[in-house]
Amino acid sequence: MNFKKSLCSLIALCALSLPLGAGVDFEWRLSLNNRYHAGPYGYRYGLVERFRLPESRVVVILDSVRDPADAYMIFRLSELSGRPYEHVLNVYRQNRYASWFEIAALVGILID
Fold first, then answer.
1. Average confidence score pLDDT of the chain
2. What is the pTM of this model?
3. What is the C-alpha to C-alpha distance for residues 32 and 17, in angstroms, rounded to an integer?
4. pLDDT band of 111, cuts 50, 70, 90
5. 84 near 56, Cβ under 8 Å?
6. Are 98 and 54 in contact (CB under 8 A)?
């Protein structure tokens, strides 16, 4: 019981210590970028396995985005929206200064 209470307290403390703003929910992307820089091949193969895509497609997306975490987001939004990842990539390119919340909405994912 104490473990659950401690865990809930830790989560609440972390949530309160984060800066406010639209990017808060995607701070975990920094850890994905760090994973890529620590081991690009491992990150690439992780995407191949996670999204069940050929490596060549993953490489094309990784080469088409600003940050490695953006590739994950493109594949994940494709999965959630049911749209091809090429469509999500086009929306990403056309709205390069948009937040991921906005891009998700543009591909048909409604986030409360």
1. 81
2. 0.73
3. 21
4. confident
5. no
6. no
pLDDT of residue 4: 45
H-only helix segments in 1-112: 2-17, 29-38, 40-51, 55-64, 68-81, 85-94, 100-106
Cβ distance 64 to 89 under 8 Å?
A: yes
Mean predicted confidence (pLDDT) in 5-14: 38
Q: What are φ and ψ of residue 107, in 5° steps?
A: -95, 5
The CA–CA distances, whole Å, from 104 to 8, 55, 84 equal 29, 24, 13
Q: Specify the pLDDT at position 25.
A: 52
> Could you report how far apart the first and last alpha carbons of the chain are, in Å?
31
For residue 43, the one-letter residue type is: Y
Task: Quickly state the pLDDT bin for 2 (edges 50, 70, 90).
Answer: very low
Task: Give yes or no for a contact between 104 and 77, defined as CB atoms under 8 angstroms apart.
Answer: yes
